[in-house]
Amino acid sequence: MTAEAIGLLRGGTAFVNQTSYRSDVDIASQITSLSHTDNVHKRLTAKVTAPGGVIEIRMIDDEVYMKTSLFRGVGDGWTVLDPARVPSDFALSFAPGKNDSGGSGRLIDAIVTARVDGPEISGTIDATRIAAGNGISFRPGPGGVFPDSARRHAFRASLDTEGRLVSFLMPEASGLPNASLRYSDFGTTVTVARPPGAIAAPDALYPQLGLGGGE
Fold first, then answer.
1. Using alpha carbons only, how large is the chain's radius of gyration in Å?
2. For 130-155, how does the pLDDT look when each residue is reduced to its tens digit (9 = 90+)?
3. What separation, in Å, do the N-terminal and C-terminal C-alpha atoms of the chain show?
4. CA 47, CA 57: separation in Å to the nearest integer?
5. Measuring CA to CA, which residue among 15, 1, 2 is closest to residue 159?
6. What is the mean pLDDT of residues 50-74?
7. Of 131, 173, 176, 213, which is most buried by a Cβ count within 10 Å?
8. Quick check: 71 pLDDT over 60?
9. C-alpha to C-alpha distance for 132 and 136, rounded to whole angstroms
10. Which element (helix H / strand E) includes 177?
11. Which of 49, 56, 12 is nearest to 27 (CA)?
12. Domain annotation for the chain: domains and CATH numbers
């Protein structure tokens, strides 16, 4: 049953490489992200809101632009990033396997048990195994450890009538906050404009990206 459910979830994310989509992530209403992604035509816009500031990202082909009020020593204007210097857990790429702005693959990889009930899939997930990256991530609590119950955290996912993953929800429990991932707007045109006046990103920016940065 678990293998069948995981197979449906993996199949339900095949759209990532086939059409444009919107992804929304919410972690305890403290960290949120809204992305419009078109991997086929290499276009993305994203906005991440976290305590202390906002990150805006635009991607066009191999160009990556960022504007943020979240990091120190970076300024508040648009910058151009060198993709080769971006930490792997921030993963800004249109390459297959790295192009899901919702990060569903990392969640599916951490599933322990799952069952299928029509378009609904529910079960348990090992929150300690959710790899670093864009989307839902958790940090350990005091002392740098997760409670044992985090290894059996509940989740509920939904597929639409075409079998696409449209929601992945994790309720508050085990000392972890509620978290949600949603996909929508399949096939909608993603238009991205190059921001005028963008300058090369300063060296101070790169160490602050990803989970090791200002999140």
1. 17
2. 988 888 988 887 777 888 889 999 99
3. 37
4. 6
5. 15
6. 91
7. 176
8. yes
9. 9
10. none
11. 49
12. 1-192 (2.50.20.20)
**Percent with pLDDT over 90 in the chain:** 70
Q: Whose CA is closest to 56, among 84, 87, 33? A: 33
CA distances from 138 to 33, 72, 82, 187, 201 (A): 15, 23, 27, 30, 28
Whether the Cβ atoms of residue 125 and residue 135 lie closer than 8 Å to each other = no
Query: Side chain identity at 36, as an amino acid letter?
Result: H
At a CB cut-off of 8 Å and minimum separation 6, what does 66 contact? 55, 56, 57, 58, 78, 79, 81, 201, 205
> Cβ neighbours of residue 203 under 8 Å, at least 6 residues apart?
none
Pure H helices in 28-150: 104-109
Cα separation, 107 vs 98, in Å, equals 14
d(CA 141, CA 77): 34
Q: What tokens were used for 129?
A: 């195994």
